[in-house]
Amino acid sequence: MAEKQKKSGGLGETVSVIVQALLLALVIRTLLFQPFSIPSGSMRPTLLEGDYLFVTKWAYGYSRYSLPLSPNLFSGRVFGSDPERGDVVVFKFPPNPSLDYIKRVVGLPGDRIQMKDGQLYINGTAVAREKVGQIDNPDVTEVNRPVDVYRETLPNGVSYDTLDLTPDSIGDNTREFIVPEGHFFMMGDNRDNSTDSRFNVGFVPGENLVGRANIIFFSIASGASPLEIWKWPTEMRASRLFNFVR
């Protein structure tokens, strides 16, 4: 009998440890960090397909979208603060909140945003932009040709590189957008290959923000899965590991 109780106690202890570990993982994922993968090239050259990164959940406070399954328990955000221009943010796609998008914040509430001839304007002033080079990257476009790289510097001093794939693309000239209160204007760094606030993403409500992109913890090329360990020697992008997202 004592032996049975001992075995039973051992099993119960194991189950208890597993449950506690799962609860701890859930709390960390909900309140602290959540992993995301990059499925498309809309944020090139900052983020590449196959990048895996952690998003800080507390950066902008919490909304119902911070919780698993996004239960409609409350509206708005608690313990919240607004993102700054230039932050790279994961958010819920407004027309379909089951989808996660990642873009850069370029417009804050009350801002006037417009693209003219490929140049970003904020409140009527052109954002500083200079050509810094070209990349010859066959997986950026269908045709293997050089792609221009520009460095943009926002009014608050945040700088980042953008790609200009084609001249006179549909997103190079837009109407003027006035960002409503409580909303944000998002754009991808790959300006000619990004579905963002210029198009059907629209203005992103603050409630839809999931968190700020923080650090790349893994990166693998050619659509390989990180579980395919045998591909790591040839496909893993070691130079991108533990890079902060800026």
Q: What's the quick description here?
A:
It is built from 2 helices and 14 strands. With 246 residues, the protein is of the alpha+beta class. Strand 3 and strand 4 form a beta hairpin.
Describe this protein's structure.
A hairpin with a 5-residue loop joins strand 9 (146-153) and strand 10 (159-164). This protein has helices at residues 2-32, 232-235, and strands at residues 33-37, 51-56, 88-92, 100-107, 112-116, 119-122, 125-126, 128-136, 146-153, 159-164, 177-178, 183-187, 204-205, 209-219. The relative contact order is 0.19. The protein has one domain (2-240): Umud Fragment, subunit A (Ribbon), CATH 2.10.109.10. Residues 1-6 have low confidence and may be disordered. It is built from 2 helices and 14 strands, in the order H-E-E-E-E-E-E-E-E-E-E-E-E-E-E-H. The strands form 3 sheets. Strands 1-2-14-3-4-12-13 form a 7-stranded antiparallel sheet. A 4-stranded antiparallel sheet has the order 7-6-5-11, with no helix packed on it.
